[in-house]
Amino acid sequence: MSGRLPTVSGLDVAKVLSRDGFKPVRQKGSHLRLVKAGAGELFAVTVPGNQKDLKKGTLMGILQQAGLSKNEFLVLLSA
After folding, report:
1. 0.85 exceeded by the pTM?
2. DSSP characters for the chain?
């Protein structure tokens, strides 16, 4: 897979994260909070749902908080 990130919306990112085991725990306005318990860790991510296209830096920050690499995200996105 290419390491280049596509343009995705916040809702698309939330769907991809749910495929990786993240569960929504709360929503405030348009921001959705997702959590996942890992091996001795708790991953918590906030995804803005109101934006059609997330900026690359925002997407990279979300992936970093989720503990996902670009390639792992791309695989989940194409699944």
Report:
1. yes
2. --SPPPP--HHHHHHHHHHTT-EEEEEETTEEEEEEE-SS-EEEEEEESS-SS--HHHHHHHHHHHT--HHHHHHHHH-
Domains (ranges, CATH) in the chain?
10-78 (3.30.920.30)
Q: What's the token pair of residue 63?
A: 């992936």
pLDDT single digits (tens) 19-57: 999 999 999 999 999 999 878 889 999 999 887 899 999
Residue 1 reports pLDDT greater than 60: no
- In the structure encoding, which two tokens stand for residue 69, read together? 């690499």
Of the candidates 38, 56, 47, the one whose C-alpha atom is nearest the C-alpha of residue 16 is 47
CA distances (Å), origin 54, targets 11, 38, 71: 10, 26, 18
